[in-house]
Amino acid sequence: MRDAFLRVEGVRKAYRSQKSQSPPVLVGVDLSVARGQIACVLGPSGCGKSTLLKIVAGLEPPDAGVVLVDEREVRGPGLDRGVVFQDHALFPWLSVLDNVRFAVKSRWPDWDRARVHIHSLKYLGLVGLLSVLDARPAQLSGGMRQRVGVARALAIEPKILLLDEPFGALDPRTRAGLQDELLDLCATFKQTVLLITHDVDEAILLADTIFLMHSAPAGSVVEAIPVGLARTRRAASLHRQVGYAALRHRLLDAILGATEGREPAPMPEAAGRVVPFSADTTNKEANHDKTGSDRPHYRGETS
């Protein structure tokens, strides 16, 4: 993909101990993500998904291969990449506001206190946390802590947002609400996102493209699957989307087929509407919702 904003090329990773070298976790991983696209790496536990995200974040070096963000090679952590982990990773001794202000001050050290404060409030407002600015993380629910993590990551205005199963530990209702909020925020800021998950429905809900990852014999991306569903998705109504069932069956068959050592079945014809996403194309599939409307919907548009 020549217009790719994120490029992962030939990435290989193995962990070494003092006595021996373990089998490789990642072997020859290649993927490309266009600017403004939400891409999801989907695969079973242990296939190397989180290791891949840490390499893109610059938290771990690859043994071979290269990662490029906006044509610049990743050689370590950087504020051009915002990261949200499953365990939120907030500073427990800082308030909600100070957790975000710390990140903003790190990103723009020359800003005065008032500008940092206003900028932090903007992003905390977007995730609905203005009423708990002085609370410590221990005083918040799991969903609220993840909102702080998302606000902190977005507040530094990263070129790419990296999400490592950020909603995996939440109850279904809280998770669905945060997934919908994330879609709205990404539409507002046209944010490029790389999401790690093992949840098929989460991948379909959030992604423009799903990179299917297998673990045997070592972690590798075996297929890039464009989602192609109408972009104005919501967790509660995802199952009513045209093409949802066929795509879900395709992904489950591919994952379970890899686990059992058999080839996945071909994509059912009902899912043939899917089209590749790029920075210059918009998903125009009609959203046949419960109102009966066949009007095309676009990312960020309200019904």
* Sheet/helix structural class: alpha/beta
Superfamily (CATH H level) name of the domain at 4-80 and 158-271: P-loop containing nucleotide triphosphate hydrolases
The largest beta-sheet arranges its strands as 6-7-8-3-9-10
Number of helices: 7
Low-pLDDT segments, ≥5 res:
267-300
CATH architecture identity of the domain at 4-80 and 158-271: 3-Layer(aba) Sandwich
Find the count of extended strands (DSSP E, 2+ residues): 10
Give the helices and strands as they follow along the chain.
EEEHEEEHHHEHEHEEH
SSE diagram, text form:
Blueprint: E1 4-13, E2 26-34, E3 38-42, H1 49-57, E4 64-69, E5 72-73, E6 81-84, H2 96-107, H3 113-126, H4 142-155, E7 160-164, H5 172-189, E8 192-197, H6 200-206, E9 209-214, E10 220-226, H7 244-260
Parallel strand pairs: 3-8, 3-9, 6-7, 7-8
Antiparallel strand pairs: 1-2, 1-4, 4-5, 9-10
Helix pairs in contact: 2-3, 2-4, 3-4, 4-5
Task: Give a description of the structure.
There is one protein chain. The two termini are 32 Å apart. With 303 residues, the protein is of the alpha/beta class. The protein is built from 7 helices and 10 strands. It has a domain at 4-80 and 158-271: Rossmann fold, CATH 3.40.50.300. The protein has a 6-stranded mixed sheet, with helices on both faces. A 4-stranded antiparallel sheet has the order 2-1-4-5, covered by helices on one side. Helix 2 crosses helix 3 (113-126), helix 2 runs parallel beside helix 4 and helix 4 packs parallel to helix 5.
